[in-house]
Amino acid sequence: MNSTAGKQVQGGNLYNKYTTGNPVARYLMNNFLTSARSLINDIRGEVNSITEVGCGEGHLASFIAEMNIAPVRACDCSCEIIETAQTMNSHDAVTYYTKSIYDIGGPERADLMVCCEVLEHLEEPERALDILHETTNRYCLMSVPREPVWRMLNMMRLKYLGDFGNTPGHIRHWSRPGFLRLVSSRFRIKQVKTPFPWTMVLCERKD
Predict the structure, then answer these.
(1) Angle CA(99)–CA(50)–CA(39) in degrees, nearest 5?
(2) 33 φ/ψ angles, rounded to the nearest 5 degrees
(3) Strands of 110-116's sheet, edge to edge?
(4) Where are the domains of the chain?
(5) Integer Cα distance of 138 and 204 in angstroms
(6) Cβ–Cβ contacts within 10 Å for residue 63, how many?
(7) How many other C-beta atoms are found inside a 10 Å radius of the C-beta of residue 157?
(8) Which of 41, 52, 89, 158 is the most buried (most CB within 10 A)?
């Protein structure tokens, strides 16, 4: 768990879904990345700057950089994770640095803000959405695990049974309709994709 400016960010589990050797998990992650690429491609002509907040080990940041749309700035609240990202997913078009979502501002301003697999870890997701809205020039790409499907899948693979399948660090849980209601309170939803078992949205700031 990391704390920045009095706001806590809960760390997740140690399972790296991007590099797993499990063929089913790899299939699901490929679908996740395909959905992200499709949504970003739809607006690529309108994007000249990209910032990912909560980048983790940098897999998505480097994936987006490979699309050759714009340089990517990618931050995370953990110094250790940023060091891992710089080692595992170094890319000429990606700049990694340490900063919490609660502290982002002018330096992070971009045409596209990316915040995937982050909000479920936050004690104040509404505050995080306000900050993303203030920081984006226009678009935001976000995703969260779709509940209760996520926990059911964990229980089917006999994981986290004592917590009814809840992944460590997940303190917020949204169904697809619930997440869309949350996002639409701050943004105009442009497109929705549901790569199993996630909800992913491309949204536009409300002026």
Answers:
(1) 120
(2) -65, -35
(3) 94-98, 72-76, 50-53, 110-116, 136-145, 198-205, 187-193
(4) 20-205
(5) 6
(6) 19
(7) 11
(8) 52
Segment (H or E) for 137: strand 136-145
- Beta pairing class for 7-9 and 187-193: unpaired
User: How many C-beta atoms surround the C-beta of residue 32 within 10 A?
Assistant: 23
Per the rule left: phi > 0, alpha: psi between -120 and 50, beta: everything else, 180 is: alpha
Q: What CATH architecture is 20-205?
A: 3-Layer(aba) Sandwich (3.40)
- Reading the chain (207 residues) residue by residue, the pLDDT tens digits are 333 433 445 554 445 666 666 788 899 999 999 999 999 999 999 999 999 999 999 999 999 999 999 999 999 999 999 999 999 999 999 999 999 999 999 999 999 999 999 999 999 999 999 999 999 999 999 999 999 999 999 999 899 999 999 999 999 999 999 999 999 999 999 999 999 999 999 999 998
- Are 69 and 43 in contact, with CB atoms under 8 Å apart? no
